[in-house]
Specification:
The protein is of the alpha/beta class and about 450 residues long. It is built from ten helices and 21 strands.
Length: about 450
């Protein structure tokens, strides 16, 4: 009798070839899509079919649970009754907003744009592809770098998309945020949210995407992409709020940012829901004075896993960036952070920071962090670091001595820990909304 064992790397390669989709996940469109976009869809589907998925030999997937990554038998999300989802979105939105879009299973079911400043283009992505083809083409999926999610990027580019295109013309200030809700429901149902924001010279705009499940405990998938472009002197803020079902839902989001001269981009991930989340964020400081700030606040419990990979690329002199990721973990939850600051040759006088902090609320929780630096220029100030630990007994005793129970003391400390990240965002209404949702999840844990 003989027994042959498959090496772990070969096993990963074999399993990664599981068929995700039987055919390109396309749905009927009410608009005529431009030829250049249809060519991207066709070529991306070919690449998706040819390329394998992540393996254990890929450094970009180090520490990841590849059993959660392998997806098979996925389906384009079907049309469903959207009334309850729209009601939830309207009931739980910010009081002040410039526009509001609700997508249910990849379909637009509600929109309000009456408070947008004059000249701002804010349309569903498919409508923007038809009406503003040349403008969208100039910015659509231009990120060539990859932090391990090429397979997801290819299927996203081949699919029918939901989401919005926002273009703010020169000198326009959009005071209130633009809100976008994405709902997904039905076992194996997959949506493809896409957000493309272009802020021209001396503009200001803020956008928040919210991701939610229609029903609890369904195996649903969201494979999204976000492109942020801030031209000279622009201020752009983007927030991705993940609040899907803690069990079953999986979410992948590939973000890219490009900041021009004297511009600023703030991007944030707030992850409270979903069983598995993969966030990738590539940030380019492309011209002098460019600044990118990347924030994340994550509250994980049960068997949730949040996997986040970042890259800060300084391409010019006198650029700055700041990254602060905070994770609060309970039960058997896991988080992974891998970040790199890259200062290219000639990018002198760079000022860049990268910090990941993990608060462990149970002995079974696991936090992995891999910060890094790659510096090829002089006269730079760069630092990176990571810390992991539990709430100290001294902090608990201090609050107990003031009449606060130990359980409430832990909740207060954990809330303050995560809210430090959220407090760095702009727009008080948006921050209060996120504070309340984080507090609500803490209450559910108790």
């Amino acid at each position: 009798m003989s027994l042959t064992l498959t090496p772990p790397d070969k096993m990963a390669d074999k399993q990664s070839t599981d068929q995700w989709f039987a055919s390109a996940p396309l749905t009927e469109s009410s608009v005529d899509l431009p030829d250049w976009y249809q060519q991207i869809q066709a070529s991306s589907w070919e690449q998706f079919c040819e390329n394998g998925g992540p393996t254990r030999l890929d450094q970009n997937w180090r520490f990841a649970d590849l059993k959660k990554v392998r997806l098979s038998g996925l389906l384009p999300a079907p049309e469903v009754d959207s009334a309850s989802s729209v009601e939830r979105a309207l009931r739980n939105r910010l009081e002040a907003f410039a526009a509001h879009f609700v997508f249910v299973n990849n379909r637009l079911v509600h929109s309000e744009t009456g408070s947008l400043p004059e000249g701002v283009i804010c349309l569903p992505i498919n409508e923007a592809l038809a009406k503003h083809s040349d403008l969208v083409q100039s910015y659509f999926l231009k990120e060539e770098g990859c932090l391990g999610g090429s397979k997801f990027r290819q299927i996203h580019a081949a699919a029918s998309l939901s989401g919005v295109f926002v273009h703010v013309p020169r000198g326009v200030i959009c005071e209130d945020p633009i809100l976008v809700n994405h709902f997904v429901g039905g076992d194996s149902s997959t949506i493809f949210p896409h957000t493309l924001i272009v802020a021209d010279d001396n503009t200001s705009v803020s956008v928040m995407d919210t991701f939610q499940s229609i029903q609890e405990n369904e195996e649903t998938y969201a494979i999204g992409n976000v492109d942020l472009h801030a031209n000279n002197g622009a201020n752009l803020q983007y927030v991705a709020f993940e609040d899907a079902s803690d069990t079953g839902a999986k979410h992948v989001q590939l973000n890219s940012s490009k900041a021009g001269r004297d511009s600023s981009i703030k991007s944030a991930f707030v992850n409270l829901g979903a069983a598995w989340v993969r966030n990738e964020s590539i940030n380019h400081m492309a011209d002098s004075g460019a600044d990118c700030q990347i924030y994340s606040a994550n509250l994980a419990n049960g068997i949730q896993e949040y996997d986040q990979r970042t890259l800060q690329v300084h391409e010019a002199q006198h650029t700055t960036s700041d990254l602060l990721f905070k994770n609060a973990l309970y039960d058997n939850a896991r988080t992974i952070f891998s970040g790199l600051i890259q200062v290219l040759p000639g990018s002198h006088h760079t000022d860049s920071y990268q910090t990941c902090r993990n608060l462990l609320g149970s002995k079974a929780a696991e936090a992995n962090a891999m910060p890094g630096l790659e510096i090829d220029a002089d006269q730079v100030k760069c630092s990176h670091g990571s810390t992991s630990g539990q709430i100290s007994d001294e902090e608990i005793f201090y609050l107990q001595a003031r009449g606060i129970t130990a359980e409430d003391a832990r909740r207060i400390i954990s809330l303050g820990f995560l809210n430090e990240t959220v407090s760095r965002l702009d727009c008080d209404n948006l921050k209060e909304f996120l504070f309340s949702r984080i507090e609500r999840k803490f209450a559910s844990l108790a």
